[in-house]
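hi!! sorry for the late reply, been swamped w classes. u asked for the two structures so here they r. pasted raw, havent cleaned anything up. first the sequence of the first protein and right below it the tokens
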Amino acid sequence: MYVVGITGGIGSGKTVATNRFKKLGIKVVDADEEARRVVEPGMPALLSIKEYFGDKVMNGLSLNRSKLREIIFSDSKKKIWLEKLLHPLIHESILRSLQDSTSNYTVLVSPLLLETSQFEM
């Protein structure tokens, strides 16, 4: 399978570009969406996060992202723990989505495409 990568910062036009690909019937795999998927209610990663950080990072059954951000950006060890948990799971989720693609090629959109190993997929 041929994968085309799109990267850029916030507001750079990634969504505008990928929406055009979607209209053409091209599968788009979004790393940010995959990252949200691995911490959905009931997912093992969310349970691990709740166990490590406690109920303060929860909004009922969902992750309180703003509270978690506040914690990890004030404690680098906790940020490293979270990245070690999530990065492999996000990587696996992206790979599954790429493998499930049936279009002629697939677009992988990621703000960290070059900063992580995602560019090798």
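now the second protein. again sequence first, tokens right under
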Amino acid sequence: MYQVDGLDTVVELTDCPRPDIGAPLPVVLADDYSLVLAYLVSEPDPNWDGSYATLVSPESEGLLVALVRFQRPYAHMFGPPNDEAFHGHPLAQR
């Protein structure tokens, strides 16, 4: 991993749909000029009573997907951390 310095910042994207908590199944498509992030959106079931779980996979149908496009990205990294290990990320405090 690269060394974090004072120039690194975190920008929260508040106008994007929230990813699914359990299985967002993110996909990144990138070239020299743009980056597209696709992920499953969180759609809480208002009638969920906690007695069952829904299995989600890439073959699941009828799920809401968000597409977020970044124009002229400088760099990107794809991978960890997940929500359990996020506190260990060098930018977690920012």
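hope this helps!! also noticed smth abt the second:
The chain has a mean pLDDT of 86.
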